[in-house]
Fold this sequence. Notes:
mainly alpha; 74 residues; 0% strand
Amino acid sequence: MKTITIARQLTNKELQSCFKDLTEWMKTGVLKEDSMVRAVHEYCETKLDTDIDLRKTEHDILCVIGERFSEIDF
Length: 74
């Protein structure tokens, strides 16, 4: 299983929460400790039993958002 596969399992509401977290992160430079993005990241690391770059998780979440809301399959 890959991080993108896990991100694809998120609901639209969870993706919207992630997007809000990511835009705030871009504006402030701080990703809140209790953010959905961090929760997804920690879940991926636990599920895959490996260290994952937080930016990889961010990238995969953004790809899924684009995929889901533009109906393009990557």
